[in-house]
Design goal:
297 residues; 9 helices; two-stranded antiparallel sheet; mainly alpha; 4 strands
Length: 297
């Protein structure tokens, strides 16, 4: 019965061994493929990319080690059974061991229980003096090597530390944000326009002084154009109406269209500045024109 169980256990382990080697081979072959793919994208690695690749390499090594260690647990029992049979004379040590046998015996270094039994007991409880399995030691040694590599790489500036990675990520994020804001600024129209922020209003003031003060005065009190500081509006007093007036103009009354000279964002900014003039006191305000409307945001 014991022999049948042993054969069944051994057959299952053969399948697990094949699976392990397939997984290891996958990682070994996928790593160069990953490197080739990355190189095809960019042959000039940034410090951040180097750090990521180093982390992936260490992670793959640890994964392979864990897989081998996990399988060694299954083979450990097999080795103990075999060593016990050899100690009892039921089986002899083969003169020529296969690579698999050599590998697992070296990696597990299993010993018969009697070989590690200490010669004393406490109330019938016997104590064993077994060594840590080599695969556990190898993992510990690997962690020391990884720590040394980590220290050398990051202490000498070969790869960026977390602060530098954060700064690189923020720089890249700001570039993406600027691209997004530019894209969104070009998409502003009279249907989705909103009031600009304080910085936008300041920019709008600069545009107003360059483009609009000839007709509306520098303080918005009005010259040939209407007074922009009172509560009277000819074409609407909300931000969408003001933006529309700036964009398309009022050719019949001498107000030109600015959509060919100003970007959508600039028209939003100058329109927001016009809205900010409400309630101010110009030096020489022009008489009210249009209907009295409360300025709408």
């Amino acid at each position: 019965m014991k022999q049948k169980l042993y054969k069944l256990f051994n057959q299952k382990n053969k399948g697990k061994t094949k699976l392990l080697f397939l997984v290891v081979a996958f990682f070994l072959f996928s790593t160069p493929t990953f490197a080739q793919t990355t190189t095809a994208i960019s042959t000039d690695f940034t410090p951040l990319e180097f750090g990521v690749i180093l982390l992936i390499a260490i992670t793959l090594s640890i994964v392979v080690l864990v897989l081998i260690a996990s399988l060694s647990i299954y083979n450990y029992s097999n080795s103990l059974l075999k060593q016990d049979r050899i100690a009892r004379g039921e089986e002899t040590i083969p003169e020529n061991r296969t690579f698999k046998e050599w590998f697992w015996q070296t990696f597990n270094a299993a010993k018969p229980e009697r070989a590690v039994l200490m010669h004393h007991d406490y109330d019938g409880i016997e104590e064993l003096d077994n060594d840590l399995p080599p695969w556990w030691k190898y993992g510990f040694y690997l962690s020391i090597i990884a720590g040394i590599i980590y220290f050398v790489v990051y202490a000498n500036g070969i790869a960026p530390n977390s602060t530098e990675e954060y700064q690189v990520a923020m720089t890249e994020g700001n570039i993406l944000k600027a691209e997004y804001m530019t894209k969104m600024a070009n998409a502003i129209n009279e249907e989705n326009v909103t009031l600009a922020d304080a910085a936008g209003v300041t920019k709008g003031k600069t545009i107003f002084e360059k483009k609009c003060k000839t007709c509306h005065a520098a303080d918005g009190g009005g010259l040939s154009g209407p007074n922009l500081t009172d509560e009277f509006w000819i074409h609407g007093g909300d931000i969408k109406s003001v933006f529309k007036t700036v964009k398309y103009g009022v050719p019949a009354k001498g107000m030109i269209s600015w959509q060919d000279q100003l970007s959508p964002q600039e028209m939003q900014e100058v329109s927001s500045f016009v809205m900010s003039l409400q309630g101010t006191k110009p030096a020489n305000p022009k008489d009210p024109q249009g209907e009295k409307l409360q300025a709408l945001k």
